[in-house]
Design a protein that fits this description.
The chain is mostly helical. It contains 11 helices and no strands. The protein has helices spanning 2-28, 37-46, 48-83, 85-98, 103-114, 118-142, 146-154, 159-196, 202-211, 215-243, 245-249. Belongs to the binding-protein-dependent transport system permease family.
């Protein structure tokens, strides 16, 4: 009952959207261009073994490696920029400029540099997920209560203690917000990298189905990619609740 109360409107809108899509696809009558949702589900069931056993692990590996690298470098850079004005002036404009370059234009360059290995796809994923993690964490660190920090300094707290007791807790909500954005973008980054150059993965399989004019086959891995993004988002939300119980109390 609580689930229906919370997600009833979303489920209702999704139902009418899928019903309209089903009706429109059947009326159009060209499934190789516009497959119906039922046709996509049938094709997904037919391809379940190859999608979930062969191609999903390849995409998931890219997502996990890319996110881990973005977390390590993004959090480290945000802390460095927070502590050093020189680092902030040097790297923050470059960080902003990196997001003005179309990812689709850089992906072929990464393929030239790294070949068809996993690292060309990881590079795309890192580039697309690095920004929200870094900027959100940096903003969170800067949002720490200055009066509370001053009180701790007066009481003799070290810089490390101020960071752990005030700045880090203040940054956590912002960090998780950026991570929620990053995990969904990581799926897009992996799919883009696979679309442009790969021999395995959900993005690669979708492109292969397109060359065969299999409309339902194109949509089937896209459904799996969407579900992967939802699961990753849910896992981040669960981790947030586990590590920030104090926020729920407030």
């Amino acid at each position: 009952m609580n689930v229906l109360r919370k997600y009833g409107l979303s489920l209702g809108f999704l139902f009418f959207l899928l019903a309209g899509w089903e009706w429109g696809a059947r009326l159009y009558g060209k499934p190789f261009i516009l497959p119906s949702p039922s046709g996509v589900l049938d094709r997904l069931w037919e391809l379940k073994s190859i999608l979930f056993i062969s191609h999903l692990p390849a995409t998931l590996a890219i997502v996990v490696i890319g996110l881990l690298l973005s977390l390590v470098f993004g959090v480290s850079l945000s802390v460095w920029m927070h502590k050093s004005g020189i680092a902030r002036k040097a790297f923050f404009p470059i960080l902003i400029a990196s997001q003005t370059i179309p990812i689709i234009a850089l992906a072929p360059i990464f393929v030239l540099w790294f070949g068809y290995s996993v690292w060309s796809k990881v590079a795309v994923t890192v580039l697309i997920t690095f920004f929200p993690i870094t900027v959100s964490t940096f903003d969170g660190l800067r949002s720490a209560d200055s009066h509370l920090k001053e009180v701790l300094r007066v009481m003799g707290a070290s810089k490390r203690q101020v960071f752990l007791k005030v700045e880090l807790p203040a940054a956590l909500p912002h960090f998780y917000s950026g991570l929620k954005v990053a995990v969904t973008l990581s799926v897009i980054g992996a799919a883009i990298g696979e679309w442009l150059g790969a021999d395995a993965g959900l993005g690669y399989f979708s492109r292969r189905m397109m060359t065969q004019f299999d409309g339902a086959g194109v949509f089937a891995p896209i459904v799996v990619l969407s579900l992967l993004g939802v699961v990753l988002f849910w896992l981040v939300g669960l981790l947030e609740k586990m590590t920030m119980k104090w926020r729920r109390i407030q």
